[in-house]
Write a structure and sequence with these properties.
The protein is α/β, with parallel strands linked by helices. It contains seven helices and ten strands. Bound molecules: adenosine-5'-triphosphate.
Length: 254
């Protein structure tokens, strides 16, 4: 099967007032349609930069980047994004927030409204469509942000530390939910996370990046079924995978 996302020899250097910052170096990476991929790496290694390039929010300096065979250009990203903060519009209700990617382009149709309602049903937020964001918990707001990212049926769902600000229990249950949403929608997902166990729980493939300039230093295929439950966290194979990834981040003192 041909890849949906193809990055080849990707480089990114930011020109700053105090000199160049080499953020990404020779990144080669393919993602198949429908796949769930996670990217882990030390702080500042260029993970968000990579996601911004995929989203068409940032240009790359060299190499090639394409989605569906089309070169990614800034401003044309066919993606949905979820950030650490839900960034919902406080004066709009949840239904209007979910419809935002569509209503920015055109007047939402009844089909669009039905799509938003279906996503809210899928994430157990059906009864909250008329509520304002502040009336929802942090976890519920992130679920609404995921609905908003999916409403325009993007080719790619990009998540940048989506649950980093939430408590551990909420985070676990949202991970189960993200696994279900991914299976039910068939979307292709890219997750950036600082949590190695979150990456192993959700992804089918994990790319480990080096310290800046970020390169891919390991690629791990996660052998579990597509459907994941929290029981997996106690599986010895789960522990073996997380410790293999952790070895990349161990500080060695010569
Ligand atoms: N707009 C920018 N202008 C200049 N330098 C930038 C810009 N954005 C990021 N950088 C630099 O590029 C490097 C990679 O940043 P990036 O945010 O992609 O890393 P990250 O891996 O996502 O970090 P973290 O895990 O801490 O969020 C850092 O050194 C950062 O300072």
């Amino acid at each position: 099967m041909s890849a949906l996302v193809e990055l080849s020899g990707l480089e990114k250097t930011y020109a700053t007032r105090t000199g160049d910052v080499h953020a990404l170096s020779a990144v080669d990476l393919d993602i198949s349609k429908g796949e769930f991929v996670a990217i882990v790496g030390p702080s500042g290694c260029g993970k968000t930069t990579l996601l911004k390039i995929l989203a068409g929010l940032e240009d790359h300096t060299a190499g090639t980047a394409s989605i569906g065979g089309h070169p990614i250009r800034t401003g044309n990203g066919d993606v949905g994004m979820v950030f650490q903060k839900a960034t919902l519009l406080p004066w709009q209700d949840i239904a209007a927030n979910v419809l935002l990617p569509l209503s920015l382009r055109r007047r939402p149709t009844s089909q669009d409204r039905e799509k938003a309602a279906a996503l809210l049903r899928m994430t157990d937020l059906e009864g909250f469509a008329r509520k304002r964001p502040h009336e929802l918990s942090g976890g519920m707001q992130q679920r609404a942000a995921i609905c908003r990212a999916l409403v325009h049926k993007p080719s790619l769902l990009l998540m940048d530390e989506p649950f980093g600000a939430l408590d551990a229990m909420t985070r676990d249950s949202l991970n189960v939910e993200v696994n279900r949403i991914w299976r039910e929608t068939g979307t292709t997902a890219v997750l950036i996370t600082h949590s190695i166990s979150e990456a192993v729980f959700l992804a089918e493939r994990i790319f480990v990046m080096s310290a800046r300039p970020g390169r891919i230093v390991d690629e791990i295929t996660v052998p579990f079924d597509r459907e994941r439950s929290l029981d997996l966290l106690g599986d010895p194979e789960f522990a073996a995978l997380t410790s293999r990834i952790r070895t990349h981040f161990e500080v060695t003192h010569a």
